[in-house]
Amino acid sequence: MTAPSKKTNSHLFRNRFLIVLLFILGATIVLGFMSFQNIYLKRDFLNQQADARHIKTEKMASNRGSIYDRRGTPLAVSTPVDSVVINPKQFLNSTGNRGKIILITNILELKTKEASRRIEDRSSKSFMYLKRHISPNQSIKIKQLGKITGLWLEKEYKRFYPAGEVTGHLVGFTNIDDQGQEGMEYMLEEFLLGEDGSKLVLRDADNNIFSDIKLLKTAVDGEDYYSSIDLRIQYLAHRALKAGVREFKAKAASSIVLDISTGEVLAMVNQPSADPNNRSLRKAE
């Protein structure tokens, strides 16, 4: 048998080299095309996917301390409530929201035109309250509407005064941001006020939180305060003073009940009085 010549071997080697070179060249072209497609042709899609998830700093509301009478009966407490928050830019850019604004405002008992104007005026903003401290029933109905782009519920705390006008002038009230404005609420502000916490969260394109990333600061609730007031005596003093003002047609009157052995104030009432649960009557706000 005749052995292959050096010329034949050289020819075979060259052919194989060309095949390998063509393969590498072809693979490079394919990879280059895929990179081009991902960078340019799919750029909008990739940008949408990137924008669909946002890392945000979320406030963790603290609970304001409660006020009690000497027997532990609550005079002022905070209860968790929902507030409706809107990202005007996202909300207005979603075509499906145009028809939902009527449903939303009807649930929240807002005027549709006025609410729409408020949102339009803040079209470049990313945060606004549509309505704060909504009722539990309103919260349920908003949730039943399903996901709405640019709208979500945020937990806050609302102050409630169980004794109403009986302790109105004495306890005072807070504003919508839970800051003391009058009475004991104002005098004990630093004692009752808590410290809000914060955390990093992952939000989707509709601003819904679907993952907590990291706790930045733990929320610290405010301290509770036990006063010398006896609500039973406070109620009797309130009733007696109200009857006296009515009987003598007085414009105003005040009454204080003291424990003579300790000097503690057991009751303190004024007439006319007001229910601090009724925000429309609050002058400080």
At a glance:
The protein is of the alpha+beta class and 285 residues long.
Enumerate the spans where pLDDT stays under 50 for 5 or more consecutive residues: none
User: CATH-wise, what's the superfamily of the largest domain?
Assistant: Penicillin-binding protein 2a (Domain 2)
* Count of β-strands: 12
Our count of domains comes out at 3
Indicate the CATH topology of the largest domain.
Penicillin-binding protein 2a (Domain 2)
Structural class: alpha+beta
Rg, Å, rounded: 34 Å
**What's the helical proportion of residues?**
25-40%
What pattern of helices and strands is seen along the backbone? HHEEEHHHEHEHEEHHEEEHEE
What do the pLDDT scores average to?
A: 86
Largest sheet: 5 strands, mixed
Q: What CATH architecture of the largest domain would you give?
A: Alpha-Beta Complex
Beta-strand portion reads 25-35%
CATH class of the largest domain: Alpha Beta
Query: What's the total helix number?
Result: 10
Shape: elongated
Note the gap between the termini.
110 Å
Give a written overview of the molecule.
It is a single chain. With 285 residues, this protein is of the alpha+beta class. 39% of the residues lie in helices and 26% in strands. The chain has helices at 6-41, 43-51, 88-93, 100-108, 112-121, 136-144, 168-171, 183-187, 189-192, 231-248, and strands at residues 54-60, 67-68, 74-86, 128-134, 151-160, 173-174, 180-182, 197-203, 209-217, 225-226, 253-258, 265-271. Strands 2, 3, 4, 5 and 10 form a five-stranded mixed sheet that branches. A three-stranded antiparallel sheet has the order 1-8-9, with no helix packed on it. β8 (197-203) and β9 (209-217) form a beta hairpin. The model has no long low-confidence stretch (mean pLDDT 86).
